């Protein structure tokens, strides 16, 4: 049911914004940036209401408690596992019970890899049982394992220089950690580069910003035409120790045993829920995180937190629909004639009453779509299949958002898009001044939204403490103990404000 509000001011009628036409002047006239700024400024009260509900109100700690219940109940959720499918079914039920709309599962095929039993024991120059984690998609060793001498290198360049020494050995990479994007290439490509020079296996120093003898797993990739060799990650401490031993001229011998196996692709789902737009329901602002994890820890940080603040964003917006009409402020429109005074006009257009349930929602003009991806850890497999299914409607996507870098206290928003879109996002982030999170950084890409960004859709990611994030990333330490409910509250508030305002503005974000 649509509502019309007629206000007579200074001899000019304000018509319903649902007409989609300009309030004043030619309806086809392109708005100036100043007019867009004034429109965004009108969302100040809505942003404060979201912040108050998420950080100080009845919804505080809700995303944390929801996440804790899932990961304590299900545990880690690797691609192809029964745990992942159980988590998907639980989330499907949770989203329905939360009262969100169009809750459904979209079928996908995903990889299924299991690590099996694994061990690595240094035999020379002394006996030492090492902590390892096999890397995703790695093959296993023969049942008896592999016993071989070690070659320690610090880079691919050094491996090439010492290629004649590598044949028949286990290559150990002790690459220094600079940042994740630079260092992760050793985890992803280490086995291939070692196999090219005749190595029997590769062990990679964990890609971690900090270590307390903690191996960190992750995906690795084989290459057509290159022999597949077993590969695993080892701790920072063991990699550095073997590097010191090698520098002294010690002969290092390791016995490696891995029971890893790759199985046929498994059936799975992306999990979807929406708040359907009131004016442009075919247009979409997508908020997302991935539900799968590695098979160690609980997958609480990577990416349970991101998935659950994305759910929380929709929950907050739905919950705010129970505000009274008098509490609703004009979120958009009226900017040409009234400028800042427009923000004081009582307006109920964004509140759509459901006659059947007698509920009122703070409903944006565009559809807010939550997607909980599957098989992100294997390279965005579920997200790619979603893209293939929905890319025909790419012109209707205003913004794609992914939270997959932790839900600690946010530093701001990472964004990729046109200069005009960036300027708009900077104005939207100014609405978050009450919690002092206003910065817009570069590089909004994420594994699950890159397909859209590469096709020209603006993209955004949440940025926070990456040093802490990569200390626990893909390790046994990724548990609820890492999570902070108050920080999750703030992250959810940022996510909800940004997604709602972009979804409710009169126009989509401009593209390049």
TrEMBL record:
* Record's protein name: Carboxypeptidase Q
What domain of life does the native source organism fall in? Eukaryota
Its predominant location is endoplasmic reticulum
Q: Which positions fall inside the Peptidase M28 domain?
A: 270-496
What's this protein's family per the entry? Belongs to the peptidase M28 family.
One GO term in the molecular function aspect is: protein homodimerization activity
List, alphabetically, the SUPFAM superfamilies matched. Answer: Zn-dependent exopeptidases
On subunit structure and binding partners, the annotation says: Homodimer. The monomeric form is inactive while the homodimer is active.
User: Which GO cellular component terms, listed alphabetically, does the Swiss-Prot or TrEMBL entry include?
Assistant: endoplasmic reticulum; extracellular space; Golgi apparatus; lysosome
Signal peptide residue numbers: 1-22
Subcellular compartments:
Endoplasmic reticulum; Golgi apparatus; Lysosome; Secreted
Q: Which GO terms describe its biological process?
A: peptide catabolic process; proteolysis; thyroid hormone generation
The record's annotation in Pfam families points to: Peptidase_M28 (PF04389)
Q: Which UniProt keywords apply?
A: Carboxypeptidase, Endoplasmic reticulum, Glycoprotein, Golgi apparatus, Hydrolase, Lysosome, Metal-binding, Metalloprotease, Protease, Secreted, Signal, Zinc, Zymogen
